[in-house]
## 1
Amino acid sequence: MREINTQDAVGHVLCHDMTQIIPGVSKGARFRKGHVVTEEDIPVLLSMGKERLFVWEREPGMLHEDEAAERLRSLCQGGNIRATEPKEGKIELLADTDGLFLVDVPRLDAVNEIDEVMIATRHTNTPVRRGDKLAGTRVIPLVIREEKLAQAERVCAGEPLLRVLPYRMRTAGLVVTGSEVASGLVTDAFSGVIEQKLSAYGIRVTEKHMPGDDRAAITAAAIAIHGSGADMVLCCGGMSVDPDDRTPGAIRDTGAEIVSYGAPVLPGAMFLLGYFSDGVPILGLPGCAMYAATTVFDLVLPRLAAGQRVTAGELKRMGHGGLCLSCPECRYPDCAFGKGC
């Protein structure tokens, strides 16, 4: 930092805010710390009584905070993400479409291990809407050694840290089990809840079957939905280990590969996930999906809607963060539920 004549300050970086007072009109920072002085700024600074300024000296190998923020932005910005202009060394990244927000967490952590740089993001696997804020980047000092940014670039190895996957699935079929539902003794309460959750991701229910509790009939209904070309098959109810709960066995009988029967998530421990040979997912939803505001289904659905294949290992890791606290006012996904996955 050094003191120079204001007339000689063009191209230099201000070390502190410069306050302008216009009596009866305004009082505030006219130029912010980190501002690069331009030719047009000189008359304004002189009118403010600033004949000398404290500035950072621009040295070879040093970057201004806005230049550095741009370098960090380029490391982050993947598909379907747009960026704001740099302001005081900060850039924000916004979703350019509805979809699933993904973060390469290990490489993000590695970048944030580098002194004087930072990238803050939402959690990975978060459903987002177009225009949602996803991340912010900045460097801590006004000027930073370029080698720090080069180090971050080596960590990222040319692949963006962040991306948004648009939702791909458009249709689903429901198999609502239970003889009491099939006979009309009990009103189907499952369908409305599931259809509402699916619609949030642009998925519509194209067909619904009520095969009762017959295992072969449940299997036949699931196979029929798959054969009709639906993007997803959901079997609702009958997922416990009671002798009269036949849905898990019926799903196995479809020939689908079962990824997992059971998940370390409450509500939703009896959840089942499988895939047909062509990649179409088939889900067994326990009864809690009908009455609980958020369950394991809400954690998995955004990923499936974006076309991701969920693995058994990923389901097992959902235990950290997989306990819903059943808050009086549900704020999912803006809560801790599922954030450990």
## 2
Amino acid sequence: MPAPAPVLKTDLPLPGRRQGKVRDIYQAKLADGRDVLLIIASDRISAFDVVMPNGIGGKGVVLTQISKFWFDMVAQKLAGKMTHHLIATDAEQVAGLTAEQRQTLKGRTMVGRRCNVVPIECVVRGYLAGSGWKEYQKSQSVCGIQLPAGLKQCDKLPAPIFTPATKEESGHDENISCDRACAIVGTELMTTLRDLSLAIYQMGHDHAAQRGIILADTKFEFGLPVDDPQGKPILIDEVLTPDSSRFWPADQYQPGRDQPSFDKQFVRNYLEELVKAGKWDKTPPGPTLPDNITAGTLAKYLDAYRKLTGKDLAW
């Protein structure tokens, strides 16, 4: 069965609409009267903080279903330590939508508890890649954490490290030290989020390893539930997807170079070629992606889903 047609924009009769690079978020009510958030993963794709004009049909469905897989595992394996925001992954319980709107949202929707978002990206790194590698080359440290000398690009770290970042509305998030993160949101809360983040990363890393995949690094978001202001922070947004994590095929892993991956690096590589050729300068508007690039990117996402979950995705 072919992937669904791209959903690039939603316009639902619900209040509080917010649009991010990929997700559209609305305030909603369930049939039982509970206030919730409706989080829709569109098929938009961004690179270098620029949203491309065409999307990748089905990408939002894959991201949502990967998140659901991990949220279920968190609830099972980390029960007692933490919980998450996910109530449902369809819009059937959401009031005020037509049957046609629910069909459009099928597979790409998370109904979640409303939260006040903690303004820190909780990043965990098990390998030296991306901005961590760039920082290490300058200072032999990442976010204030001193690392052994002589590490190569993409080397496995002696132990996973917690490297928080600020959440920016636009532009790149900024890597910060844990001390600065504590100053922003409080030491007790930040210590809790650090411990939870490391626990989720280890859970994800161990499962992925059994499936022939390296989870190199990832980022999490947490929130404080509006309906329980004195409650513990809960895991929100997406979790352990190819958009929020670096997944590498273990059988092709070789330190000292960039690794092949299951994420939108396929798109980034194409765009970098355009930049080298002087056909784009990494500013809006982005170029239209050719069919072979969109198809190849979706194939990467579907391969990640298949390997992580052990089954094919049913559209």
